[in-house]
Amino acid sequence: MNFKKNAGIVLIILGIILTLDRTNEFKGIVSTIIYYLQEYWPLLITICGVSLLTTPQKTKKK
């Protein structure tokens, strides 16, 4: 997948989460997500690094 597609997916999910946090059913979901991000941010960096390494390189045809 390319960067634009991944960024679009992330923005859609973020928008849904922020919308759900304003309802009574999902009270505090953003604080829970922030807690997990604070605890596991090195894992996110590792996953991004692995993703960049395993992405196939496009070669130009002459």
UniProtKB/TrEMBL annotation:
Chain ranges passing through the membrane: 33-53
Domain Syntaxin-5 N-terminal Sly1p-binding stretches: 21-32
InterPro entries registered for this protein in UniProt: Syntaxin-5_N (IPR021538)
Key words, A-Z: Membrane, Transmembrane, Transmembrane helix
Pfam families per the UniProt record, alphabetical: Syntaxin-5_N (PF11416)
Statement: the UniProt record of this protein carries the keyword Transmembrane: yes
Descriptive protein name: Syntaxin-5 N-terminal Sly1p-binding domain-containing protein
